[in-house]
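Regression test case RT-17, inverse folding.

Input:
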């Protein structure tokens, strides 16, 4: 299936005998039109092909990590992110969020906990199970993700989460204001330099002795597993995205971030080389995800 050209999808149209099938075939055709290379940004020196091979990797990389592009991407994905996140990870995202909480050292005094790059608060139930008595806050810079998160805080958690609509790399959070900072799947959209800024900010907002834990998806080292995983994310997920939520281009972008993130070594380097942080790396499910845990010294 993964080696098959995308055009095989068009055969759906040939069997459209009911209105349901006709509708489905139209959706697939529309998806294929949307998946053709398009020029969506003029950031940097030239126009950037958003979903195909890129001729100038430096320009493409710039756009990939441009904060405005990242914010826009998550704004557009906010309608469907939660559902697709579970599908895209084969349900592993649920397990990895659980493992995230277990990575926080058990002896930390967690009076104030921050969920960084919180999205719509997908980790919050787990977070409250792990820190039932803590004061909890979240931060994200996508206005739509934040709007959903605030709604969720109000409707499901009695307004317990204060949600900051801020850039994690340039926030107004006070120095040493958190005992614990966690984040699920929030690191891959930081390039090398942004990862270092993130480490600086983490060291600034954590109190001495405070702890952090992060999880992120990675490319597995096993070539067979990596091929299957790549194929699933680059081919199957955009189709599922189109059928379920009609935004395949956005879900193809996730694959590009995963590719660029590789084994997560740039996050590891940034955390490990920061003089005020200690970090341990944890391989999760044969390297399909990575965990980082550590402390502010
Ligand atoms: C893949 S989602 C993860 C959402 C959630 N943590 C989860 O468990 O699914 C990444 C989130 O990070 C946010 N984000 C990316 N860069 C950010 C930054 N510099 N400051 C704040 N939020 C950021 C995006 O808006 C998006 O909501």
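Golden output:
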């Amino acid at each position: 299936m993964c080696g098959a050209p995308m055009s095989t999808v068009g055969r759906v149209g040939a069997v459209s005998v009911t209105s349901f099938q006709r509708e489905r075939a139209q959706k697939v055709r529309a998806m294929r039109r949307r998946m053709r290379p398009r020029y969506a940004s003029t950031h940097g020196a030239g126009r950037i092909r958003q979903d195909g091979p890129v001729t100038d990797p430096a320009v493409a990389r710039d756009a990939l990590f441009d904060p405005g592009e990242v914010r826009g991407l998550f704004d557009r994905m906010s309608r469907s992110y939660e559902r697709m996140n579970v599908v895209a990870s084969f349900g592993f995202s649920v397990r990895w969020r659980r493992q995230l909480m277990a990575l926080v050292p058990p002896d930390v005094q967690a009076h104030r906990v921050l969920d960084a790059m919180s999205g719509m608060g997908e980790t919050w139930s787990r977070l409250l199970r792990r820190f039932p008595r803590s004061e909890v806050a979240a931060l994200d810079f996508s206005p739509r993700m934040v709007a959903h998160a605030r709604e969720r805080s109000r409707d499901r958690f009695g307004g317990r989460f204060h949600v900051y609509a801020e850039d994690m790399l340039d926030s107004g959070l006070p120095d040493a204001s958190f005992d614990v900072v966690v984040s699920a799947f929030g690191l891959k959209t930081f390039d090398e330099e942004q990862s270092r800024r993130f480490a600086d900010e983490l060291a600034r907002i954590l109190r001495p002795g405070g702890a952090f834990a992060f999880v992120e998806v990675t490319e597995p080292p096993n070539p067979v597993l990596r091929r299957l995983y790549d194929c699933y994310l680059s081919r199957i997920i955009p189709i599922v995205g189109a059928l379920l939520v009609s935004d395949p281009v956005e879900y193809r972008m996730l694959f590009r971030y995963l590719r660029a993130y590789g084994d997560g070594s740039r996050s590891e380097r940034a955390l490990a080389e920061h003089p005020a942080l200690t970090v341990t790396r944890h391989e999760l499910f044969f390297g399909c995800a990575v965990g980082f845990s550590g402390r502010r010294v």
